[in-house]
Amino acid sequence: MKYCSECGSANLVLRSPGRDTHRRLVCNDCEKIFYHNPRVIAGCIVEDNGKYLMCKRAIKPRPGSWTLPAGFMECGETVEEAARREVWEETGAQVDIRAPYSIFSVPQIDEVYIMFRARLIEFSDDPGPETAEVAMLAPDEIPWENIFYPAIKDILQRYIEEKDRGVFGIYMGCSEDGTVHFMQ
Ligand SMILES: [Zn+2]
User: Fold this and answer.
1) How far is Cα 127 from Cα 15, in angstroms, rounded to an integer?
2) How far away, in angstroms, is 22 Cα from ligand 1 center?
3) 66: CA distance to ligand 1 center in Å?
4) How many Å lie between the centroid of ligand 1 and the Cα of residue 72?
5) Assigned architecture for domain 39-175
6) What is the tens place of the pLDDT at every residue in 38-77?
7) DSSP state, 19?
8) What is the CATH class of 1-36?
9) How many CA atoms lie within 13 A of 118 on its CB side?
10) How far apart are the CA of 30 and the centre of ligand 1, in A?
11) DSSP letter at 155?
12) What residue spans define the domains of the chain?
């Protein structure tokens, strides 16, 4: 940003205003503080009779790789609404959200992924332009070597293992360090 969106001044500096713990872009003329915060990505693991809803990416990065439906939360919606909307936009499926499954932080790129467990209700529409192909895949049909992001592969593998054991946990952490929490 070159100019203050409040007063139009070009006198913008990086500093820690007041007792703030972080350096912010601040307008020296009107004292407007420009906050830059992480983005939330919401999505679902959608299971139906041992098959999992996956989509093949049509867009960069890595078109042709497979992933779980997820995308950026919008202002004015809850994180569950965001997850349901993203599933519908990317796959055309209506789903019923059951429970949180993973709260995964990526501080290197300022993103937080919140993934839910969900049940398929029905396919009510065609996928949007971000998706090349949609499929319900059994574990032995999942293209494990062509999954978009390692954390997506991990979350699917954990789900399949936990489903076999009949107990689902909730992951909290990042790729280097995290814990699966099981509630009593
Ligand atoms: Zn200003």
Assistant:
1) 45
2) 19
3) 45
4) 29
5) Alpha-Beta Complex (3.90)
6) 999 999 999 999 999 999 999 998 999 999 999 999 999 9
7) T
8) mainly beta
9) 29
10) 4
11) H
12) 1-36, 39-175
